[in-house]
Structure formats: C-alpha cells, structure tokens
TrEMBL record:
Presence of the UniProt keyword Lyase in the record: no
Official protein name in the record: Type II pantothenate kinase
Top-level class of the enzyme under EC nomenclature: transferase
An annotated Gene Ontology molecular function: pantothenate kinase activity
EC number: 2.7.1.33
InterPro entries linked to this entry: ATPase_NBD, Type_II_PanK, Type_II_PanK_bac
Keywords tagged on the record: ATP-binding, Coenzyme A biosynthesis, Cytoplasm, Kinase, Nucleotide-binding, Transferase
Superkingdom: Bacteria
Pfam families assigned: Fumble
UniProt organism field: Mammaliicoccus vitulinus
SUPFAM superfamilies, sorted: Actin-like ATPase domain
Amino acid sequence: MKIGIDAGGTLIKVVTEMNNERTYKKWLTTEIDQVAEWLSQLDNVDISITGGKAQYLDSLIKHNVKRSIEFDATYKGIQLFLEENDIHLNTYIFSNVGTGTSIHYATTHNQERAGGTGAGGGMIQGLGYLLTQISDYDELVQTALNGNRDKIDLKVKHIYKDDKTPISGDLTAANFGHVLQHINEDFPNSDRLAAVMGIVGETVTTVSIHAARQFKTENVVFIGSSFINNELLKNIVVDYTVLRGLNPYFIENGEFSGALGSIYC
Ligand code: ATP
Ligand code: MG
C-alpha cells in the first residue's frame, strides 16, 4: 500500500493507493498524534509526506518515509487529477487556498511560485470567529450561505450613485466599507460571514488574476480545503474570475493534490 500525506497548517490530507484503488481521508492537524499512531500500526507501506508539518509527523513515526517539496508535490497531484478528468491545459495558474494562499504558475513541465496572500481558509476561520464567536467550521460555512453583503460591502455603484461608473458598478469598492453607513442597523452573523467569504474570495481571485496576467495564461485552477462545503466562496471566486475574462477550474478532491503528488514525486 502507498500512502501520501500532506500535513498542512490546519488539516492533514491522506491518500492511500492499493490495487488501483484510491481512498481519501482528512484529519485535523491537532490530531497529528493520532495519525502517527495509525501509521505506526501499519507494515509493508510506502509512506510519502509533504507539507509544513511533514518534518514533525516524520519524527513521530518509525517508518522510513519519502519527503518531497510541497509545491512540487501539489503540482504533480494537480497534473494527475487534470489528466484523469480529461482536462488539458498547456499553462495555468494554480491557487492553493489552504490556511494561507499560495499561487503558482504551471506548464506541462513544472511549476514556479507566483505569489500568495494571507487571505485564505485561516482568515475565514479566525476573522469569522472574531465577528461571530462561531468556531465550528460547518456551522461557519452554513451560516454564511444565507448572508447578504449589501449593508457591509461598498460597491462601486454606491460611490458613483447616479453617475456613470468607469468600471462595473457591481464590483466591490471597499470590503466592509458600507458598515458605517448602516451603523444603527443589525448585522446578523450570516451577513458578517458572507462578507468574510467576500473579502477572502475576492482577494484570492485578485491576486490569482494578476498572476495570470503576468504569466500570460487564461486558466486558473483553484484547490485547497477552504472550498469544502463552502459554495459561497466557490461562487464568489468563479463569478469574479469569469468577470475578469479568465477560466476557473475546480477539480474533485483537489485539496488532496499535495498528498497524491507526494506519492509520485
Ligand atoms: P497550509 O497549506 O496553508 O499549510 P492546509 O494544507 O492545512 O494549510 P487546507 O487543508 O487546504 O490547508 O485548508 C484549510 C482550510 O480548510 C481551513 O482553514 C478551513 O477554512 C477549511 N476547512 C475545510 N474543512 C475543514 C474542517 N473540517 N475543519 C477545519 N477547517 C476546514
Ligand atoms: Mg496545504
């Protein structure tokens, strides 16, 4: 059995492959000792590890493990997933929206890092908690679904009012910039969290679009567990990418790219 592990800042992604069958499993990074315990009970396994907690997980287990560079493993995994899904891209940007967001330019041969932003899944959880006291991930993303950003985010058309706007009036001019104009009104948790998804989704997309322009590609592949059960974030990213004339791609199990790729690096 082959086991590929991406031990990240928030989640540990595990892919196993045996007799052409693949399984996917996630653990919280706070459960890293349990992952080590599980691995320690296994014999006859080839273990590959990548990610920021790879060194630590390696130190907890007895096996000889193969270690690989996170960015290369992620690229390898994305290439495999794209191929398996019959998606053929000569060049693309991939944005890994994990705890933080890392952005890369990829060709059919390799990847190079193109940038990143601290807006990502960690910001969704942390800012989301500060604004609502909700720490449960599923409750957070479910609550955001029913939210309305109108009273919180300022759009270009709000500034220009009846005047003609130089860019689409529906673009966000200032995330959270509408709040003080509604100071005597209520801001339900759903609205607050929808605005959190807004700032994260728009920041991630903006940085990705700039990278796509810099590297002259029209394709952006979005991966990372931040999109799990988070349809709102996905929609924001898709709409904004399309609005800017680029092609967004999401791949099933994309958040396991690093774990899968580590097996094949
Ligand atoms: P990094 O790559 O930055 O080290 P990571 O690999 O741990 O971090 P991902 O697993 O891609 O990052 O994404 C983590 C994010 O996924 C969290 O910040 C959160 O927004 C989201 N998430 C999805 N499912 C869960 C869950 N069950 N528990 C906590 N966070 C979750
Ligand atoms: Mg990661």
